[in-house]
Amino acid sequence: MRELFSIEAEHALLGALMLNATLFDDITSKVNSRDFSDLENAALYEAILETHASGQPIDPVTVGIERPTLPSGNRTIAYAGEIAANTPSIANWKAYRRTVLERSALRKVIEVAEVIRDSASEDKPVSEIIAMAQQATADLRNLDDDAPRYRRLDEFMGDASQAIDDKANGRAPTWPDTGLKDLDELVQGIRPKKVTVIAGLPGSGKTTLGLQIAQHNAIRTHKPWLIFSIEMPGEELGVRAIASLGGIDLRRLDNPERMKTEDWANMVNAVAQAVGAPLFICEDAVQTPASIRATARQCEREHGLAGIMVDYLGLIKAEQKGRTRSEEVGTISKALLRLAKEMNIPVIELAQLNRDSTKRVGKKPQSSDLRDSGEIEADASCILMVHRDMDTEEGQNGVTEILMTKCRHAKVGSCVLQQQGEYGRFVNFIGNPYPSDEEVEMGRVVKFTSRKGRRDYE
Fold first, then answer.
1. Is 145 found in the same domain as 246?
2. Residue 214 domain boundaries
């Protein structure tokens, strides 16, 4: 029986990379870190890529300087040195590469087979199972060493036509959504291989919205999501989830002696909704792009992974000191975009805004208000600005405008949600938050009198 991994081949391939600089393009053009079965080997491979990207020559010392420790806590330089010293022959690098890729493909086939089997046992529609199998087959790597890494335009057009036909006939996999009707109509799906930025001023509700999207997909659609909560401890996220799912005031959860009889029943119901839901939280306060990538790969291997939410971008540590913080954040932003493409999943990253918007007439934020780096705007496929003007009666009543200031797959625009801060959630807004043109012409003023969007005219 063929083994599903070969640690020896992985070590030999890594050794060849460190011993012969001319092999870098030939190896890295076909191999990515997910092809390594061992987490230490995957981390070392990423360190090699980072060393090359920094312009340094590749050897155990430079790689160890670039990333001092591996996920296990062992020193990179010692691990890399041992591998390089024990590499049998760099002349056989093609054989090492083929073995690593073949075993990676075999693991992928088995994972897909298990997912399809589980889907069949869950009595999912046959069309959905077939679409899943087709997508998985298309994702398998071409193991032909001489296969070109380019294709003609008409081939891509053929793929696009097939995808459109599959979508029209209900065979295409659905994209993650937000669970909020107007926002879903605006965004038209949280797209895989892309980065969606949710930005806002402190206290605007961006964490609430990001958490709610991940929570919706994990609990309502049973898709595995991973949250990196760098600022907020996991226990606090748990309290918020209880409030959101159970409709319990956060203030009463903070003071249990004030909880009512129905609150206790609602809390039990909220926990029951989340039992077994594949929503995973990493609350480590120190995160780098490499640690996020390693944790995401581990989660994917053990549970599958349909999406990632990072709270928030400005707290991620740079792996290499940049000349400015803007440069560091730009590098981090691009690393998260690469992760989305490599893993074929959406990445939602939360970001802070500077205070320039508060000085603007209307106070509405723009993409240029993103703090730290313009690269965040450049790398994002979709940017959602959470705008709640607390100087207005509407804002004080929780009316929140979501401005989509950039989108590569839909028309930019905005929608309005109702923020229920006491429950740590957003709900669909009922009513019209702004006077219509007819109302303006008639000189009528819209006044909000309830959180459900009821209006009185004066």
1. no
2. 181-392
For 167-216, the pLDDT digits (tens) are: 788 776 677 888 888 898 898 888 888 999 999 888 888 899 999 999 99
In a domain, 314, yes or no: yes
- Residue 335's CATH number: 3.40.50.300
Phi-psi category of residue 344: left, alpha or beta, with phi > 0 → left and psi -120 to 50 → alpha: left
Task: Show the low-confidence residues of the chain (pLDDT under 70).
Answer: 1-2, 115, 119, 122-150, 172-173, 319-322, 373, 431-458
Q: Is the same domain home to 204 and 227?
A: yes
Domain end position, chosen among 392, 415, 442: 392
Cβ–Cβ < 8 Å for 190, 245 = no
Cis ω for the linkage preceding 312 (within 30 of 0): yes
Same domain, 95 and 211: no
Query: How many Å apart are CA 60 and CA 68, to the nearest integer?
Result: 11
pLDDT digits (tens, 9 = 90+) for 52-100: 888 889 999 999 999 999 988 899 999 999 999 999 989 999 999 999 9
Give the 3-state DSSP-derived string for the chain, with helices as H, strands as E and coil as C: CCCCCCHHHHHHHHHHHHHCHHHHHHHHCCCCHHHCCCHHHHHHHHHHHHHHHCCCCCCHHHHHHHCCECCCCCEHHHHHHHHHHCCCCHHHHHHHHHHHHHHHHHHHHHHHHHHHHHHHHCCCCHHHHHHHHHHHHHHCCCCCCCCCCCCCHHHHHHHHHHHHHHHHCCCCCCCCCCCCHHHHHHHCCCCCCCEEEEEECCCCCHHHHHHHHHHHHHHCCCCCEEEEECCCCHHHHHHHHHHHHHCCCHHHHHCHHHCCHHHHHHHHHHHHHHCCCCEEEECCCCCCHHHHHHHHHHHHHHHCCCEEEEECHHHCCCCCCCCCHHHHHHHHHHHHHHHHHHHCCCEEEEEEECHHHHHCCCCCCCHHHECCCCHHHHHCCEEEEEECCCCCHHHHCCEEEEEEEEECCCCCEEEEEEEEHHHCEEEECCCCCCCCHHHHHCCCCEEECCCCCCEEEC
| Cβ–Cβ under 8 Å, residues 221 and 206 | no
| Amino acid identity for residue 134 in this structure | Q
pTM: 0.64
Q: Tens digits of per-residue pLDDT, 327-364? A: 888 888 888 898 898 888 999 999 888 877 777 777 78
